[in-house]
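input
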Amino acid sequence: MTIAPNYREAMSAYTSWTVQDAAERIAVPATDDDKYSRGVLGVITGSTMYPGAAVIGVEAALRTGVGMVRYLGPERAADLVLQRRPEAVISDGRVQAWLMGSGMDHVERESLPHMVAALAQPVPVVLDGGALDLHSRAGGPVVVTPHFRELARLLGADVSDVAADPSAWARKAADALGVTVLLKGHTTYVAGPGISLSAASAPTWLATAGAGDALAGILGALVATHSREVQDDPTELARLAATAAVVHGLAAERASAGGPLTVLDLAAAVPATIGALLRG
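output
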């Protein structure tokens, strides 16, 4: 698949999403909020081979700020999630958004009994990793979070072409698939219906295993806490995706302090990062 030059020129203009913009997309609990009104995120991630993806995503989501996480993944991953985050709920129930696919491959995801039913629900969905190609089966607004190789596979394109012009390919994918696209990279490009945003707050140390799982968890939490706004205004999903990229990058910078970091270091830095955003 190729992109014509005029399409590239017309569709590659992105607006930079700033820390001030991101601060406006943080949901601060009110005095009358409870764990349900603050947002419930349903999570179907991880696998027998990659159970850590579930742990990282749930950890990042809880530290971003939701009232509850419901985890419905494989048994081994569920056990590890509970060991790390005993407040996670391992049962089905009402949610305001779903996060699916991190750490899954095509074969294992189809064995999960909850996935098809979850996709049919009319709530926003974050699709990562092995669930990217399920976008057409979702009953609510969708944001997909590929890296270059995943987007190339999704579109039948060449990886080198995507890497050479990621902003144009993010826009092309959003238009072709009818979803919001968060294309991961040192600069993150977010393309949605009538909106194109970019964010570049991440240190180079963030190129590490599990970083995408943490980003998906942060985004899932933001979508769950803004579920109604997303359903009222489809462009809001792109703003939340760009906000997730900003929070992710700033938390990595805080955790790194100029040196190496692990993804759990990043997740631990998310609350202070959000606090700093809210303080301006």
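quick obs: Residues 4-11 have pLDDT under 50 and may be disordered.
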